[in-house]
Amino acid sequence: MDVDGAAEDGYFRAPPISSDVDTSATFNLSTVYFPKEGDHVLGVIVSKNLDFYTLDIGGLCEAVLPAVDGFRGATKRNRPNLHEGDVVFCQVTREYPARELPTEVSCINAGDMKQWTTKETYFGQLEDGFMFTVPIPYSYCLSGDRCYVLEKCAARFKYEIAIGLNGRVWVRSANASDTLHIARYIRMCFGLTLPQMEALFTYLDNSP
Fold it and tell me: What are the subcellular locations of this protein (predicted)?
């Protein structure tokens, strides 16, 4: 990626990705995620107890997900049984800039009244599929209402995707080969112009 225009403090203008996200915003080049309330993130469970799951969200400190209050409709007797290594799509509900306490996350979406047992909720455990990392600024572009890269992928494959603003992307499609192709397309398009993306897709389509 060309970062010749980066300032000395490590900030730069987002790359020219076609998206409805305001790419005039400045982003930090650091690979460390700094949580913000309301962010959608992908976390990996690293430990658990009776009350909380502890997640790695790529920040300077871990996040905690309440085992009951973090899922709509969950009770002490009927709640998700997640394990170390499971991937969870969730939302940051509280962050502590001084890191005196862990970041708090939840799998409850205010606009979604479905209970966790339906497995149709917006947030929750992501099963199967493949998770990979992208530059954090790129995750903002990918999460826009329209994204050229994802539209190009959708023209070639049927897939599900979850994008975390902590620089993580999860993809699941009909088979492992398609899933890896989608991940490859997404990762390689970062920082390219539209003509460069077109050329890349043409090249990859004709590659073995």
Answer: Cytoplasm; Nucleus, Nucleolus
Q: Which CATH number fits the domain that encloses residue 187?
A: 3.30.1370.10
The pair of three-digit structure tokens given for residue 62, joined into one six-digit string: 């871990």
**Which runs of E-coded beta strand occur in 147-208?**
159-164, 168-173
Instruction: Provide the domain limits for residue 76.
Output: 35-127
Please give the residue that has the higher pLDDT: either 173 or 204: 173
**pTM score, two decimals?**
0.81
Q: Which two tokens stand for residue 55?
A: 């997640």
Answer yes or no: are the C-beta atoms of 173 and 156 closer than 8 Å.
no
DSSP annotation of 92 reads E
Helix (H, G, I), strand (E, B) or coil at 70: coil
Question: Does the residue 172 lie in any domain?
Answer: yes
Three-class secondary structure of residue 138 per DSSP: helix
Cβ–Cβ under 8 Å, residues 180 and 173 = no
Contact 57, 65 (CB under 8 A): no
User: Which is more confidently placed, 113 or 91?
Assistant: 91
Whether residues 175 and 116 share a domain: the answer is: no
Provide the number of structural domains found in the chain: 2
Distance, in Å, from the CA atom of 151 to the CA atom of 20, rounded to the nearest integer, reads 13
Q: Tell me the one-letter amino acid at 31.
A: T
